[in-house]
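Tutorial, part two.
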Amino acid sequence: MNKPADLKLANVPVWINGKPLVPQARMGEVYNPATGQVAKRVPFCDAKIIDAAAKAAAAAYPAWRDTPPLRRARVMQKFLALMQAHQKDLARIVTEEHGKTLPDATGSIQRGIEVIEFACGIPHLLKGEFSEDVGSGVDCHSIRQPVGVCAGITPFNFPVMVPLWMFPVAIACGNTFVLKPSEKDPSASIRMAELFKEAGLPDGVFNVVHGDKEAVDAILAHPGISAVSFVGSTPIAKYIYETGARHGKRVQALGGAKNHAVVLPDADLEFTADALIGAGYGSAGERCMAISAVVAVGAAADPLVKLLGQKARAIKIGPGERDGMDMGPLVTGQHRDKVKRYVDAGVKEGASAVVDGRGLKIAGHEEGFFLGTTLFDHVKPEMSIYRDEIFGPVLVVLRVNTIEEAIALVNRNPYANGVAIFTESGGAARRFSNEVQIGMVGVNVPIPVPMAFYSFGGWKSSLFGDLHVHGVEGVKFYTRTKVVTTRWPHQDTPAPGFHMPTLG
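Running the prediction step on this input gives:
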């Protein structure tokens, strides 16, 4: 993890008031995970820089708020076209800094682009309600208005898709925005800011800052920021929610996950195993919707584990930009080592290591942050490899006898982001969907990430706040409802008295 001595490293700028700049600040390092080399430097913003971004957003807010929603939507349509045109370029940036394969990066960007498509319909989504004659000569209507300056704090695993869950909806609703992407892969956010400006977005409406906890705390404490969206681990999500709320902000904080896949004996096991391999090991397991725990019911267990083992060993691992790769490296050396320690713990705790990914070396990329696929069987709920969100290429199998036991096991877990069931029984799937206490459910769908016109979010320790991201709930989060009651009195209308008016 060394930077070449003869290479002058590029600095990733911040984006404030429509311009890139590199502020005087502490600097962090951005790695190429496939090589283990430092590729760029990124400024770690302090409260002064955060304040400059927030003030730029506040200055731009009145004019953008007063821009008709249809005109805002037209800017969003131009941004959509530019994102589509530059999708492959953005995917290359993601692969260079995150490590995921190019097809995986391209697919994730497409899911983010779908949120821009949703935001293009904002004039319809901002419509209020109207009731005539709620009282004698009295009408009542509601309107949705933006909340002001909003901020997003996003994770390393989806440096394009997750920010796109937030800022297109917020900005289309008439808000201005300050984005703090992960300092591990920050460049894609700057490229999106450039494209947004090219689409005609006024300066100051969208700003990008970088940094660590100091920058986050400055966002949470800033009096000019009205709402904060976050995606990350559960401990940090809880901190973001509590700190932001204490400062009077509206907060949605999406936390961690331990997503289960329940496999019934009647499932098509070949189809199921293929689905679970992609869901468990795609993007090296660095997905908040990755399947990390398989619950094999009854007779499904032995043949399923055999298939999973065969397919896990066949996964092609290498640099993300290389053709034909199924899985790339992990994002940093520190994270790879953390995941490896979980594999060590699983072996020590007595789980059966069907496939062991430790010790993998990729020729020509020996310094890269690679870790092979690991599959554990006979895992017990008390083991750390089940309890904790590992966020790596580790899939664990637990065995139960009945669907009732499977539902109870899933519902006991403190995380409640996503879950899947594999079965050919409609009755079993319907019962499971009704009884499982999880925010997003897939039936023979391993990663049930909803389309942009539905909301994304979990329950329990996977979400702090009342509203999920994107979809109609995203519009609700980034707007406030105002209700207007109206009377136009005639000369013969009696004046209001001292009693509580009934409007009748």
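The longest strand covers residues 138-146. In part three we will examine how such features are distributed along the chain.
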